Amino acid sequence: MMKNIEIGSIRPPSESESLLVRVTRGCHWNKCYFCGLYKSMNFSMRPIEDTIQDIKEQAALYQGRKFKSCFLQDGDALVLKTDYLLRILDALNKYFPDLEYITSYARADSITRKSPVELQELRQAGLNHLYCGMETGSDKILQLINKGFHADTVVKSGCMAKDAGMILSEFILLGIGGKEHSEENAIQTADALNMIQPDFIRVHATGIKPESKMWEFVQEGSFTLQSEEEIMIEQKLFLEKLLEMDSYYVNEHIINLLLEIRGNLRTDKLEMLSAINKFLGLPEDEKLLFIVGRRLNIFFMLDDLKKPKQYQKAQECMEKILQKNPQVDFTRLCNYVRQSQI
Description:
about 350 residues; two-stranded antiparallel sheet; about 15% strand; alpha/beta; about 45% helix; eight-stranded mixed sheet; single chain; 13 helices
């Protein structure tokens, strides 16, 4: 009889098929004003014996199943001492010898606290893909959201991970600066990424949660929510400012409006911009219909507007919304839907 294997609730969308191994509980920073993922949880490091026992038990449980990737939970395994991580990596390599990738979230300041030699040791031991939530390249916005580090740390950490031979994913948030800092968010985030040149740029539209500190800023009027169209205009500027580098632009999360905007920046940038321009060029009523239909998961791609059944269903939903509240604020309504999906 196996004991309960402890699994955290959070992982990147791209790790949906991965083996999950929990090495910490929660987030050691846990002070970002936009994030509520770990607010109800005190941070703790799991005893290494428990973590290794979980690895052994999962090897027995999944006997015969070959995992391609393992994700180390929760919020940032890189905060752990290198020797501790190396013992966990050694256990994973022993019990899951077919793993191609061992991955983790990693805060920028956790990476920069490691030496280049330590990062290379971790890479050689199998930790070869880091997911970093930089969110933005703007110092002003990083301070606004209480991220706990500056843009120079973002750039330094990304370059250190790349120099160590790791695959690097950088998460960015469109709309995290509100109307007040939209242009700055687009330009300065692109500037930082152009210096880092990560393997993946993972784009999320911001959804401000009502229980967050950021929502207090909305209520007091110092932070103005952007409409879906305004976030898309920000995304267009962001894409325009990104170099045509060998980085894959990933628009994978259900929270994003146009899921078709994805591809390699070196080869697909113009096609991605064309999709944005296609949306922005729609008549205003069709644009709003697509936005509402997309947020209700009726539409997923722009071409879904051409499908009569989905178009009719979206129209019916729009009519119900307007009947219930003719003065509905679609900016707030869409923010509500987005924040409920994260």
